[in-house]
Design brief:
single chain; ten-stranded mixed sheet; 860 residues; alpha+beta
């Protein structure tokens, strides 16, 4: 059987070429993503950075710690408390201390001669800055940095690369990396918590990679930010711990590698790897799915094309088992060769993939492929298993071939759907539909999760693809009804040929179904969710004007907030970003984003989707929650931990609809954990002049000199509406690109094989008087018609998936339409049609170069 399989692969290499290429690419991508995944299982131990040269660091604990029945649970705090002045004084008695104050500084360089020279944004600061709801994008020409006193620079340590240290107010030392425009002597406009000012750059230090910093004199830094965020102590660590313990809890004493907890965003590398892990895992899973589908479809069609060959073997005495083993052995041979090729492709492409992820900003700059080899072994044997599994179902059909099949000459396919395929299709479809209905009934929000909207459509796609032989015939007749009635025989012949060769039609349509359904489902779902979130933002904000800081993650100066409140005719609703944490079922700490608002003015500037209670009942002793919370009864009390770690018991004043997940929690400013205001929603009073109010707000913003922006409600909603993230976009395009590539390979392979087997039919057409261009036009029209059938089926699957998403949104109280990616889906269908037409016409053109009489006399 092995020799027979090798002979079959050699003589029918055209049939197996598509499976080989698709499987090799699939194994290559699985190997590359596997190697990249292995590199995400652990971030490198880079040690402390900001305080690498400090012996002991004292700072407030940045983790909320709650004791539960299953041990102590922790969650990050939204705001870390400062070091108490009394503790600073006590620790100073042990030895020399250095006070660190970290505060936001937004720069806009003016140069030596006063010419504007806007600074570019540093991506590292974007990752570490807190992203407040609705703060909007950063203003061009503003570079967010972090300010520190110069004395703490030695704790990193920073060393001057030019100039000198700051010696007077208004002097600064800045980090200067390769892309920085700042140099010694520059005059720099800056915004700090104390207001707008101008600094002179008197020195620069090398950028150490973990922050973009501005160092000021110690006295000036203390004036801008009086609170001590961390304290460097040059003393024995045990003595420091004793003093901190006597002062009470809430403070950490960091030494050794523990000093890394004081770095900006100490968990950012691990968090970035989680996103990369999810992206690569999804891409690998979809690649495996597409590869299995393409290989299974290819082998199924190949077996259907070889029924006379198998009939001849049965006549010669071959048993059904021997026929099955021949088909499986052929698949195994192709699988081993393709997997070996994919092994090499994956090992070669993995470093390129890692570099691309870094260049796109999806992975940290240090991300690289490690020395693990186990993903290559998994990819290799996965490829062999995929090839074998894909051919297994086809082998059973081959084994049922009767010896009389050798006598068949009919071109019309019969019994295209065995009972086993009917049963499998029904089970898969019922499972997919059942999961969707269950999610809609029990938890509509589950239908909107990334895992759900990526994996659930696969079941429906598989089920419909299994029914392709049944659906293809009626759809071909329906879609070609009009072309068949046009003058000429092309439409009629294309219709009859596609209807008669149902197996061929289904084999060509199946990969198109997969690609179109994936494209429309995934892109459509993401776009629909983005539109739904944008709709929520638009409907929940009724303010006429919205005032936001000039840079993302920043806050509005308290003096400016008071000026806005004093503007005549302006009803100002000041809000602050914070978070609250609740212990669910006694074991899980769940943190929710929250807004601290003024209850008396909330109704004038916002209209959150309230399903129970009243927003006006919100006070310092209450909270507004959403339906995702376990406790949603108005009037009941819940124990929560605020953004600064304080434990309080609050009464539920109102409950909001869940929506897409953006309807967070509302508390009052007293429960904001010390957060500053990052947004002011302004409603114009009925008797006031809107133009005058807007002008007054803009005048106040310009006087502040901090880049504060005054937007209309519509402008703010457009800027604040969440869009598709870079990681999501990259992941979707990676998935769809691989699916489209596999589709092209499967189309080309199937049509080349089918056209090669139809040379006698083409010769008969030539002998009946058809010209070569007419025959080629017929072949192209038939190929495009079959692609259209696959596109219609795929569109139907996508419509069901998008209808499920729309239904989930409706059940969650979000009234938003479905967004269909017409352009991308149309481009995918057009590309498939072009590939199909070329793959059918080219072999037909080569075959027609032979005399028709000779072609008609050819034997298999």
């Amino acid at each position: 059987m092995l020799m027979l399989a090798l002979h079959g692969v050699r003589t029918r290499w055209v049939t197996f070429a598509g499976s080989f290429v698709a499987l090799a690419l699939g194994v290559g991508l699985i190997a590359a993503t596997g190697l990249a995944l292995a590199a995400t299982f652990g971030a490198p131990d880079k040690g402390p950075q900001r305080f690498a040269a400090a012996p002991v660091v004292v700072r407030a604990d940045d983790q909320l710690r709650v004791r539960t029945a299953n041990g102590v649970r922790t969650r990050p705090l939204a705001r870390t408390a400062p070091v108490p002045p009394a503790l600073v004084t006590e620790l100073a008695a042990l030895g020399r201390t250095v006070e660190d104050r970290a505060f936001p500084v937004d720069l806009a360089a003016t140069g030596r001669d006063g010419d504007p020279r806007a600074q570019g944004s540093d991506p590292r600061t974007q990752g570490s800055a807190s992203r407040a709801q609705g703060s909007g994008p950063r203003t061009q020409g503003v570079e967010p940095r972090t300010g520190h006193p110069w004395s703490v620079a030695a704790a990193a340590p920073y060393r001057l690369t030019s100039g000198r240290s700051p010696a007077a107010p208004g002097e600064a030392v800045v980090t200067a990396g390769p892309g920085s425009h700042l140099r010694t002597g520059d005059r720099v406009r800056a915004t700090t918590p104390a207001g707008a000012t101008t600094f002179t750059v008197v020195g620069t230090v090398a950028d150490r990679g973990f922050e973009s910093a501005v160092f000021l004199g110690d006295e000036e830094a203390a004036r801008i930010s009086p609170a001590v965020d961390a304290l460097v102590v040059h003393a024995d660590a045990t003595a420091v711990r004793d003093v901190v313990a006597r002062a009470g809890g809430g403070m950490d004493v960091l030494t050794g590698d523990g000093r890394r907890r004081a770095d900006p965003g100490p968990d950012r590398d691990a968090e970035a790897l989680v996103s990369v892990n999810a992206l690569l895992g999804t891409a690998a899973g979809i690649t495996l799915f597409v590869s299995v589908s393409v290989v299974a479809s290819t082998f199924s069609f190949a077996v259907a094309q070889r029924r006379r060959e198998f009939g001849l073997l049965r006549t010669a005495g071959a048993t059904p088992g021997q026929i099955r083993w021949t088909v499986v052995a052929e698949a195994a041979v192709v699988g081993v060769l393709a997997s070996a090729t994919g092994w090499w492709l994956g090992a070669t492409g993995a470093p390129l993939l890692a570099a691309r992820l870094v260049d796109a900003g999806l992975a940290p700059a240090w991300f690289a492929i490690g020395e693990q080899t186990w993903p290559l072994h998994i990819a290799f044997w996965t490829g062999v298993g995929v090839a074998t599994a894909g051919a297994l179902a086809a082998s059973f059909r081959a084994g049922r071939t009767a010896p009389t099949e050798v006598l068949r000459e009919a071109a019309v396919d019969s019994r295209t759907m065995p009972v086993s395929r009917w049963i499998l299709a029904a089970l898969v479809l019922l499972t997919g539909a059942g999961l969707l209905v269950t999610a809609l009934v029990l938890d509509p929000g589950d239908a909107l999760g990334r895992k759900a909207y990526i994996t659930r459509p696969l079941l429906l796609i598989v089920g419909v693809a299994l029914l392709a032989p049944v659906l293809a015939g009626p759809l071909v007749r329906a879609l070609t009804w009009l072309p068949a009635r046009l003058p000429g025989a092309t439409g009629v012949l294309a219709r009859e040929n596609a209807s008669a060769g149902v197996r061929r039609t289904a084999a060509v349509a199946a990969p198109v179904v997969i690609t179109v359904a994936l494209t429309a489902s995934l892109l459509g779902t993401v776009a629909t969710l983005a539109e739904a979130k944008a709709t929520e933002v638009r409907t929940a904000t009724t303010a006429d004007l919205v005032v936001v800081p000039g840079a993302e993650g920043r806050t509005l100066p308290p003096s400016f907030v008071e000026r806005v409140r004093a503007v005549e005719g302006a009803v100002a609703g000041v809000s602050r970003p914070t978070a609250v944490t609740v212990l669910e079922e006694g074991t899980a700490l769940v943190t929710s984003e929250a807004r601290a608002v003024d209850p008396a003015r909330l109704a004038a500037v916002a209209a959150p989707p309230v399903v129970a209670g009243r927003l006006t009942d919100l006070d310092d002793d209450s909270i507004v929650v959403n339906e995702e919370w376990l406790t949603t009864t108005v009037g009941e009390r819940v124990t929560v931990w605020l953004g600064d770690g304080r434990e309080v018991s609050l009464r539920i004043a109102a409950v909001l609809a869940t929506g897409t997940g953006g309807n967070g929690v509302y508390v009052t400013a007293r429960n904001a954990g010390g957060a500053g205001a990052d947004r002011i929603d302004v409603a114009v009073a009925e008797a006031a002049d809107p133009g005058a109010v807007a002008a007054a707000l803009r005048t106040a913003a310009e006087a502040e000199g901090t880049g504060i922006r005054v937007l209309t409600g519509a402008e703010w909603a457009a800027a604040a509406a969440p869009g598709m993230s870079d990681s999501t976009r990259a992941g979707l395009w990676l998935i769809l690109s691989m699916a489209l590539l596999c589709t092209g390979i499967a189309l080309a392979n199937t049509l080349v094989t089918a056209t090669t087997d139809r040379v006698r039919d083409l010769a008969v057409l030539r002998l009946t008087g058809a010209s070569v261009p007419q025959v080629l036009r017929l072949v192209a029209v038939e190929a495009v018609a079959v692609v259209t059938v696959g596109a219609v089926i795929g569109a139907g699957v996508a419509a069901v998936n998008l209808a499920g998403v729309w239904g989930a949104l409706a059940l969650l109280g979000v009234r938003s339409g479905v967004v269909v990616p017409w352009g991308t889906t149309g481009a995918v269908i057009a590309a498939a049609a072009v590939v199909a037409a070329v793959s059918a016409v080219v072999p037909a053109a080569f075959a027609l170069r032979t005399r028709p009489v000779e072609l008609a006399g050819m034997r298999e």
